[in-house]
Design brief:
Elements: E1 9-13, H1 16-19, E2 36-40, H2 44-59, H3 66-83, E3 93-95, E4 104-108, H4 125-128, E5 134-138, E6 144-147
Parallel strand pairs: 4-5
Antiparallel strand pairs: 1-2, 3-4, 5-6
Helix pairs in contact: 2-3
């Protein structure tokens, strides 16, 4: 479509009058044949992000099963992607809880891990307080270290 591209709208002419065999030349007709409709197509990255969120939001459980673990990892990478431009070298907690997986937190740790990463002060508050019981740990570069 002309002018279509990631994040852009494409104008698509819609002619109902011609489809019904009527003339769209009648100015008194109640059809919208000359109205251009805009179709929104999100950029591929946004579409992937929306998919990750919907996958993460389907579980809703607080368990630590393999399915929840996989969803938590996908959600953690999504959360990371939204914050990747920030300096993550200090190992911040990215999320105290994952939407749809409220028993999981997302944390950044050194690569390779250092003893300082095991200190409670350097872990997500929700994990330290027992509000969450599982976590996904990523490197400052977004690679999975562990999920448990």
């Amino acid at each position: 479509m002309k002018g279509a591209g990631p994040g852009r709208c494409a104008e698509v002419p819609v002619s109902y009058a011609r489809h019904r065999g009527q003339s769209d030349q009648n100015p008194l007709a109640d059809d919208t044949s000359s109205v251009n409709r805009r179709v929104f197509a999100p950029p591929p990255f946004i579409a992937g992000v929306l998919l990750a969120v919907s996958v993460a939001g389907c579980g809703g459980g607080s368990g630590g099963g393999q399915e929840d673990r996989d969803k938590a990892i996908a959600a953690a990478k999504f959360i990371y992607a939204g914050k990747a431009r920030q300096d993550l070298s200090a190992g911040p907690c990215l999320s105290e809880g994952i939407p749809g997986l409220s028993d999981w937190a997302v944390d950044i740790a050194h690569d390779p891990r250092r003893p300082v990463d095991d200190q409670p002060a350097n872990q997500c508050q929700s994990f330290r307080s027992g509000e969450t019981h599982h976590f996904v740990e990523l490197t400052p570069g977004g690679q999975l270290i562990r999920a448990q």
